[in-house]
Amino acid sequence: MNTASPMTALKGIGEKTAALFHRVGVDTVGELLSYYPRTYDVYEKPVTFANLETDRVQAVTGFIHRAPDGRKAGRYHITTVSLEEFGMHLQLSWFNMPFLRNSLLPGCTYIFRGRVQKKKGRITMEQPEIYAPEDYEKLLDTMQPIYGLTGGLSNKTVTKAVRQAFDQLDLDTEYLPEHIRNEQKLAEYNFALRAIHFPVKREDLLLARKRLVFDEFFLFILALRQMKEQTEDTVNECVIHPGVAVKQLLSSLPYELTGAQKRVWNEIQADLMGETVMNRLVQGDVGSGKTVIALLALLSAVESGWQGALMAPTEVLARQHAESIRELLFGLSMDTGVELLTGSMTAKEKREAYARIESGEAQIIIGTHALIQEKVNFAHLGLVVTDEQHRFGVRQRETLAGKGLHPHVLVMSATPIPRTLAIIIYGDLDISVIDELPANRLPIKNCVVDESYRPKAYRFIEREVAAGRQVYIICPMVEENPEIEIENVVDYTEKLQKKLASGITIEYLHGKMKAADKNDIMERFAAGEIQVLVSTTVIEVGVNVPNATVMMVENAERFGLAQLHQLRGRVGRGKHQSYCIFVSGSDSKDTKKRLEILNKSNDGFYIASEDLKLRGPGDLFGIRQSGILEFKIGDIFTDALILQAASEEAAKIEKLDPELKLEEHQGLREKLLEYRLAGMARMSL
Ligand code: ADP
Ligand code: MG
């Protein structure tokens, strides 16, 4: 067995389980080893009822007085047990586990472990784990990996598979040159890999993580630098001059560009006409007006005889871009062929779209990443814009270059990254910043409240809807179990329908819905047919409905602040006053303090860094600041120092041995090649 072996090479894993692993992106044993735990469970000593704290996972010792109760509630069967200790009560409940009535025996003592919650004044645990005291004893103080899962794939299955892989695999040898490991005090690779899955103690875990984060950044930066060598002197074959249509578009806009937009547009124009190909990152906070900048560049390309492509991370966003771009172009004297290309189109529709792209009839092509798949042949691609994708880089560019294309590249991002960091990450990109919001915006009003405020919030929502506005409600994410997350959204919507005045149209949206259904909901929301949209964070990026003025986030404490800031960016995009209601399900003071940071600032990076300060560097495995920067384990905020170190080492290598010819760099050379190939493979899936 080697790292390239398929998952079925592992004992006990057949086609069916392999298919589940495929859903989380694991097809080979090597990929399994780099499927790092999402977090770890530490089995702490059971606490007394008096020491229970809401919103923490804790264990208690419980004596069963009488057989559990079972009842039906809607679609569920609910089993409950009421525990008592010195006059204090704790209510336990389980969904759809009726057999517990017979397995929790009166007169016996068990350890129950789960998240402590307060519901209607009662202290509760939902779905607590159940252990015999002697079994719990064995787990005490150990750290158990928790993996990202999907329906049907249990944490146990993943854990067992990883263990087996370690037992049977000849691991790769260390590839990082010794001088780097010494300089940066990095753990040995195989030690790190094992310890990240099965840490024996916390210190090992921190060492392991540091090493793997370093590797991730280091390889990424090295690959970027190699790319840079290839693109730096790429002659601008696609000279683009904005012409009449661009002038016309500018004068037909319902607003004037802000100073910052004008400046950035000038920088882009200079690139498009320049000697070498453009590689530019446009950073601008949510709502700063990046879309129109993209359109100006795309239209210029078309006017100069080139095709322009705009890539969005989701189909919903791609559609929305297509619509607003068609709208903005409507009425210009030049007719522009705008083509929308998405994964949910039928095979026939796709074929026809491919044909129009190949003939050049399609001039502005908008779509998800399906766009740059093998099948698309552009007639004369001159510009690629990627929106809200935070790591357009090595992979996509290599795919394009592989087709002999050297288009201009414009990357647009709302992720708040300070310039110094951005230069490290994006290395070879020039950076423009839109640091000004359109003047007609009123600052968003924020409040952090507890759950008892909900009825008031609902009355407020009704008033806003009566005034013609629209509302987003974000339900808590349940990373460990996407099925529960969906249930939450559906249940919440059902309950909300009873709580809000009739006549208000409420719909829900979640990531597992069919693309066509998502599109339909988003389109109806954008058209004002839906007033309240209950959603998971799938609406996080890019969606623009200026008439939406209220964003209510349930269980706000479970989100990283940078992510809440992104979510908040969905409102405050029009001329109406907008509001954010962060509902905290936790009564802890720290949580409140953390969320209050959102009140103080509208600067995404400031928010992220304050969040980190409060939670401290030890809290590396809690909430990720931003799921949108696609590093597997590194987080550019939390790991800014490691990122810096990786960047410095990459610079040294580049000076010392740019082509990695030295004997001591052979391992690294191979690893880097593998890294780039893996990137290519993923692109062509
Ligand atoms: P983002 O930067 O988050 O992608 P968008 O490009 O979606 O933001 O723009 C947000 C909203 O602001 C859109 O409704 C757009 O029409 C509007 N807008 C863009 N530029 C300006 C401007 N200069 N003045 C007023 N409104 C603007
Ligand atoms: Mg946008």
TrEMBL record:
It holds the Pfam family Helicase_C. PROSITE patterns: HELICASE_ATP_BIND_1, HELICASE_CTER. Residues 271-434 form the Helicase ATP-binding domain. It catalyses: ATP + H2O = ADP + phosphate + H(+); Couples ATP hydrolysis with the unwinding of duplex DNA by translocating in the 3'-5' direction. SMART domains: DEXDc, HELICc. Coiled coil: none annotated. GO terms for molecular function: 3'-5' DNA helicase activity; ATP binding; DNA binding; hydrolase activity. Keywords: ATP-binding, DNA damage, DNA recombination, DNA repair, DNA-binding, Helicase, Hydrolase, Isomerase, Nucleotide-binding. It is an enzyme of class 5 (isomerase). Residues 453-613 form the Helicase C-terminal domain. It comes from the Bacteria. InterPro entries: ATP-dep_DNA_helicase_RecG, DEAD/DEAH_box_helicase_dom, Helicase_ATP-bd, Helicase_C-like, NA-bd_OB-fold, P-loop_NTPase, RecG/Mfd, RecG_dom3_C. Its EC number is 5.6.2.4. GO terms for biological process: DNA recombination; DNA repair. Plays a critical role in recombination and DNA repair. Helps process Holliday junction intermediates to mature products by catalyzing branch migration. Has replication fork regression activity, unwinds stalled or blocked replication forks to make a HJ that can be resolved. Has a DNA unwinding activity characteristic of a DNA helicase with 3'-5' polarity. Belongs to the helicase family. RecG subfamily. This is ATP-dependent DNA helicase RecG.
